Amino acid sequence: MTGIMYILILLSLPFATVTGQSTDGSVCRDKIDNCATYGQTTCQKFQQWAQQNCRAFCQFCVAPPTTPVPCVDQLGNCQDYGATVCQNPLYAPWVMENCRYHCRQCSDDQLAIVDSKTTPPPCVDQINNCSRYGQVTCMNAKYKRWAQTNCRYFCRFCTQEQLLIADSKTTTTTTLATPLKPCADKIPHCDVYNDDVCTNEKYRSWAEENCPVYCMLCSTSGFVTIPPRK
């Protein structure tokens, strides 16, 4: 009988709810309402501030389950802004609103799911006369969306890997090493490639054929091998 009474007393005592509380017993919630606009990088770079203001968002405590913000870009041209806009804290609110996926401001689980479903569009032009419209069409914000759809290759709106493959299919293979061979870039905008394409031995023959001037692979007597740029 004593054992039964002891169990009944224990059952009548109030229990603290663990979910939604921090380790010190306080409610696990953010002090400000817009923590998401600062992004996940803020949690580590400004940890002291984040612990005071964004404990739940930064997972410094166990918060009640919430529906995560979709890991999507609201703009179709986030890649045009490059990586700089993603890394600058001044643009964090804009990034979280417009280019969340491009800037990788999602949870690891979200990124894994979206990455598995996302493939870049083919690096091809949908029309045959893109050159007629000129590069101004590629850079003009008014026509950029149209250019991305119809003149993706001409406007160089592809990944570097795609451009390497596409350019190799559209250039003519010639024999190197004639002393009087003119040294000129065979494709426009070699500068869109990273320096790695000039210095990495994996791409050396491609660079000599397509971008010798940009990659500084010329001499007065033809092609020469020069040390990689520091």
UniProtKB/TrEMBL annotation:
Sorted alphabetically, the keyword list is: Signal
Q: Which Pfam families match?
A: ShK
Could you tell me which PROSITE patterns the record lists for this protein? SHKT
Question: Where does the ShKT domain start and stop, copy by copy?
Answer: 28-61
| Position of the signal peptide | 1-20
Tell me what this protein is called. Uncharacterized protein LOC111135278 isoform X4
